Amino acid sequence: MWDAEFTRRVRAASFNDNGADSEPPEPRTLHRSSASDASDSVGVVTRSMARRREAEQLEQQQQQQEPTPPPLPNHTGSPTSRYVRRSPQFNYDRFIPTRANEAADYIGFVRDSSPTLNSSSGMLLEHRMAAEAANRTYDAMLRSELLNDRSPIVSAPKPKSPVTRRSLRAQLPPTSPQLPSLAMPWSSSQAGGNSSRPNTPPASPGHSPVFSYKSPRRTLAKSGRSQFDCASPVHEAYQMSPVKPETRRMLKPQPAVRRLPREPIKVLDAPGISDDYYLNLLDWSIKDRVVVALGTAVFLWDAKTSQVRELFDSDGPITSVKWAERGRHLAVGTSAGTVQIWDVEKSRKIRDFAGHTRRVGSLEWNSTILSSGSRDKHIINRDTRMRQGAVVSTYYAHEQEVCGLRWSPDKIQLASGGNDNHLFIWDSRYTPLNALMHSTEPEIAPGARSFRRPLFRLTGHTAAVKALAWSPVRRGLLASGGGSGDKTIRFWDTTTGRQVSCTDSGSQVCNLSWSRDGSELVSSHGFSMNHIVVWNYPAMKPVGVLRGHTSRVLFMAHSPDGQTIVTAAPDETLRFWSVFSKPAPPNPGLALLGTSTSGLLLDLAPVR
Questions:
Q1: Which of 139, 228, 259, 263 is the most buried (most CB within 10 A)?
Q2: pLDDT tens digit string along 449-469?
């Protein structure tokens, strides 16, 4: 009985050791003695137990060398489970988009702040602006395609603090619906919840209706019937772009970025030029001649021949120069208070007017009328055709030196700026509180009047007002710039006397000049930037900066073709910059009359 039970157990152990798939051993014939059978059975059991212990030790060693991998997440119910790639390695990192409110973190890019005038980066300002515009367009396209965000492309932001993820999340609309997950772009929330088949993946490329040219239909409002719109080949139904129509509207052609030169096209020496903010020592005539006053001498430079010649050398310093409208006569103001008229073709002086008691710092022509502003606080208007009795009117309003004068393009209003921080508008047709001047003086014409109250007193500047420029396309629009204590560029509507806008330029404004089409404004600056800035009007965003002068850019003039400006500074250089593009050709019917009818009158009226 014991032998039979022992044999059954040995057979069971041997069957388990050979494996479940092995066949059970054949029954042996009991022809040996019982002692031999017992010894054989004990050996078999011992070997089986030894093999089992070795297997357990090997398994324990493997467990100590390689940790047990964590269980994989269950994605059987997810529509993206078939896209999950299970790697044999366990140090993997998958991104599961479960927080829709942080979608902006993965689309918005953290960049540097917008370029400013004080940027010291080696990249050009216009190149940085172009890169920022391209990045904003790309961000808007990604938001429209992935997040269904149809926000328009905004201008370059100017953050006061570093851009963080929290600030990017704050830019999302607070009332926007729940954003769809990036893993399921075909979710019904992206379509506004109107889809009849939510969570349906897009059609495969093989079933895309690319070649289904079905004409779009439109419904007439009155009759209610529909007709084919065959006359629109650019309809949305015919578009084969991979992006949505809303995104294509964002990718409309952007305006070209203005390219400004980094270096001047020409540099001339100007030794001995005065370092005085209140003077006007540079001008460019319609005949393409540049005049500059260097100390007591006046020099001319011909842009067509590049010839330089000295017009004259006076006894005292020259304080202002101004070309007549036809480019033949030159007005010169002196430190003694006299105003001289020179015929450049004949190189001789034809007029010498007295009247001011101190230096004449500003001059301006209005046909045959020459206006002069002086440190004696007066503005005198003279008719240059008369040798005696040339003074036709005088303006008394400024409390300090008059340093800026500009007649409007229609020759009706005169803008005057002074060191008293005041800007006055004078109207040649009517000015209240006028009075007859003393006609006994030889310089005063019969019937001359003195005006003590301007048409408008424009207040707002907190420093001297020298830079003045009238818009060539908009009537009554005047730009003015303040000195080192103000640093602002202000725009005025002289038909109502109100301020239109104000821009802080960051440095002393010395000169202003408009482009021919009135879309841009160029300004030269002194303390502390000493550069030239081109502005886009009316946005007043800097288009570019021209650097090269090492001191204040006190003087500036515009070429007759409207493309080039010349600047002068106490660093004793004249620099020519190609800033504006070629303007549109004028009306050929007006070419016979010259640049203006007032210029024609100057030629018809002989100088007696």
A1: 139
A2: 888 889 999 999 999 999 999
